[in-house]
Amino acid sequence: MAAVEHIAPLIAVARHRLAVDGQGVTTLVAFHGCTLHCRYCLNAHCLRPDGLWRTVTPEDLLDEVMIDNLYFLATGGGITFGGGEPAIRSEFIEEFCRIAPPEWHITMETALNVERHHLERLLPYIHEYHIDIKEANPEIYRRYTGQDNRRMLDNLQWLLQHDGMADHIVVRVPHILDYNTGEDVCRTRDHLTSLGITRIDEFTYQRLTH
Prior knowledge:
The protein is α/β, with parallel strands linked by helices. It is about 30% helix and about 25% strand.
């Protein structure tokens, strides 16, 4: 039986990113498609049919990003998968990681609101997770994203069950204008701390109109 060719839709490939998407020099690979519909989404075109830039195979992508191999090796950097929601492209990412140099540091920027089988597939390959948790309060989360947050919280707890994983997770906790308050953010931080999360990035979403 012939091997299945994995093809993924992209919205961008951004080179030479430093100290914004993981350690060292990184190339951000942003996928089209997401499980959420966030009100202030920075990449809302990831949900629009006309937001698709192009499609690639894992081999295509590797050929393109290999140009920065020396930067990755010298700085401990590598590839950061974002989007959109990269975890829903788990088969593509798995195949890419299998053929990429093993020294590359692989980071994933995710909202974590995906079916568990994607995370199980990716677990052996992702070195660091940057998780945009949005909100621990389910009502605020639903109003802001259009989805329930139970799956996201369950997936976070599942990741933390793996030894040492807390050291490889950065959780982003946003202040969201018109949706949550400073007290809500504090409660979210307290919940994360109770789970064993120590790397928390608190910031403010910019209100955008599309």
